[in-house]
Amino acid sequence: MHLSPVIAAVLAAAALHATPAAAETAWITIGEKAFALLAEQSTPSRVLASRRVPVTVPELRGSRTMVQGSEMVLAVELDDSQLDALITAVHERLHRCGGFAQHRSQAEALTVLHRLEAAAAIVPSAPSYAIDNQLQVGALLPQMQASNLLDTIGSLSSFQNRRYNSSHGTLASTWLFNRWSQLNPGNRRDVRVSQIAHSGWPQKSVQFEIIGSGNSGETIIMGAHLDSINGGSATAETQRAPGADDDASGVAALTEIIRVLMVSAYQPKRNIRFIAYAAEEVGLRGSQDIVAGQAARRDRVVGVLQLDMVAYRGDATDLWIYTDYTNAAQNLFLANLAATYLPTLTVGFDACGYGCSDHASWHNAGFAASFPFEASNARYNFALHSVNDTIATFGNQADHALKFARLGLAYLVELASDNTPARQAAAGITVANTTAATATVASATAARVKAAAATAATATAATATAAAPARR
Ligand code: BES
Ligand code: ZN
Question: Which terminus has fewer CB within 10 Å in the chain: N or C?
Answer without folding.
Answer: N
